């Protein structure tokens, strides 16, 4: 499972949880994070955490902004950055985290 490497904390080895959210390694490998600011990265992480198995989330702007401690205008810009980067699709009020 770990190519012969020892885990540090064997009782807490990470597994995909039943609610089916994870962060894809391609975010780093394909340099997507290099093109995002901290707000867009935080919004992406939030959406990945709350999305269902199809990548769908119905969190509204006010609720998302409050949870991320940013204002709604900053949230809208972050969302736009994610859409332009091809990481999410958005059709109010629905987000889809894309493959």
What does this structure look like?
With 99 residues, the chain is α+β, with helices and mostly antiparallel strands. The protein is built from 4 helices and 3 strands. It has a 3-stranded antiparallel β-sheet with strand order 1-3-2. Strand 2 (88-91) and strand 3 (94-97) form a beta hairpin. Helix 2 (38-50) packs across helix 4 and helix 3 (61-68) crosses helix 4.
What layout of secondary structure does this protein have?
Layout: H1 26-29, H2 38-50, E1 56-57, H3 61-68, H4 72-84, E2 88-91, E3 94-97
Helix pairs in contact: 2-4, 3-4
For this entry, give a set of tags.
10% strand; 4 helices; 38% helix; single chain
Sheet with the most strands? Answer: 3 strands, antiparallel
Multimer state: single chain
Rg value: 15 Å
Q: Count every helix, treating DSSP H or I runs of 4 or more residues as helices.
A: 4
Shape designation: globular
**Mean pLDDT, all residues:** 88
Structural class: alpha+beta
Give the strand order, joined by hyphens, for the main sheet: 1-3-2
Low-confidence stretches: none
